[in-house]
Write a structure and sequence with these properties.
24% strand; two-stranded antiparallel ribbon; single chain; alpha/beta; 35% helix
Length: 235
C-alpha cells in the first residue's frame, strides 16, 4: 500500500486529497467524504482501510487546506457554511470528484463514494447530482433533502446506514428522504440499526447528551454491509 497527499486548486482556494493505493491493481476507486470537522485521521484511516480491501481510497477535503473544526461549535460553523450554500457545496463535490477521476491509475468508470455524518450527506448529494458513481454508502449521514438536485434516476445505487436513534436524522427527515428517493426513482436501501445514535462508527464519539455515541456492533456490521455492497456494485 502507498499513501500520498495531492494538492489542487479550485476557484482560487487550495485543497488536497489523501490517496491510499493498494499493492495490486485496484478493483475501483472510492471517495471518502469527511465528517463535520473536516478531513482528519479518521477519514484517512478509512481510505487506508479501503486500500486494504483492494480499492483506491481517496479522502477528499471540502473545506480547504488548514480549515478544521476544533470543537462542536467550530465544526458546525464550517459545515453549515457549505450546507447553507448549496451551489458552493455542489461545486466543491464536483471538483473533488473530477480531481480524483483524473488521477493516474484511476478508472473514471469504476468509482464509488462513502461518507460519514456531513460526509454522508455529501455522498448522497453526489449521487443526486448524477456523478458517475456505481454506488455510495452513507454512514450516519444527514438526510435532509435540501434542493431538488435531479429529476432523473441517479446513476449510483445508494446504501444508507442509519442509527435509528440518531437525533440528527430524525424520523421526519427519514420520511422526507424516502419520498425524495421515490421521486427520482433511486435504487436505494436504508439499513436502520435499532438503539443506535449518531456517529456510531467513530470510537471517539462519547457524547450521549448530544446523541453521539460509538456502537461497536453497528460499526462492524455497517462495514460488512459496505463491503458486500461494493462487491456487488463492481462485479
Amino acid at each position: 500500500m502507498t499513501n500520498e497527499t495531492l494538492p489542487y486548486t479550485f476557484e482560487g482556494e487550495s485543497f488536497d486529497v489523501f490517496v491510499a493505493r493498494p499493492a495490486s491493481t485496484p478493483k475501483a476507486t472510492i471517495l471518502v467524504f469527511h465528517a463535520w470537522g473536516g478531513r482528519d485521521g479518521f477519514a484517512e484511516a478509512k481510505a487506508k482501510d479501503l486500500a486494504g480491501l483492494g480499492y483506491v481510497g481517496a479522502a477528499v477535503d471540502l473545506y480547504g487546506v488548514g480549515k478544521r473544526g476544533t470543537d462542536n461549535a467550530s465544526s458546525e460553523a464550517l459545515m453549515m457554511a457549505l450546507v447553507g450554500n448549496p451551489p458552493v457545496l455542489r461545486a466543491r463535490i464536483q471538483a473533488a470528484y473530477d480531481t480524483v477521476a483524473a488521477l493516474d491509475g484511476v478508472d473514471g468508470q469504476k468509482m464509488g463514494a462513502i461518507g460519514f455524518c456531513f460526509g454522508g450527506l455529501c455522498a448522497i448529494l453526489g449521487a443526486r447530482m448524477g456523478l458517475e458513481l456505481a454506488g455510495i454508502v452513507s454512514f450516519h449521514g444527514l438526510l435532509k433533502v435540501g434542493e431538488e438536485a435531479l429529476e432523473t434516476r441517479p446513476k449510483a445505487r445508494l446504501l444508507i446506514q442509519h442509527g435509528q436513534d440518531d437525533p440528527m436524522a430524525p424520523p421526519a427527515d427519514v420520511g422526507a428522504f424516502a419520498e425524495e428517493m421515490k421521486r427520482i426513482d433511486a435504487d436505494w436501501v436504508l439499513h436502520a440499526y435499532p438503539g443506535v445514535a449518531h456517529a456510531f462508527t467513530n470510537p471517539e464519539a462519547k457524547m450521549p447528551e448530544f446523541g453521539m455515541m460509538y456502537d461497536a456492533d453497528a460499526d462492524a456490521r455497517s462495514w460488512v454491509e459496505m463491503k458486500r455492497f461494493f462487491l456487488d456494485c463492481f462485479s
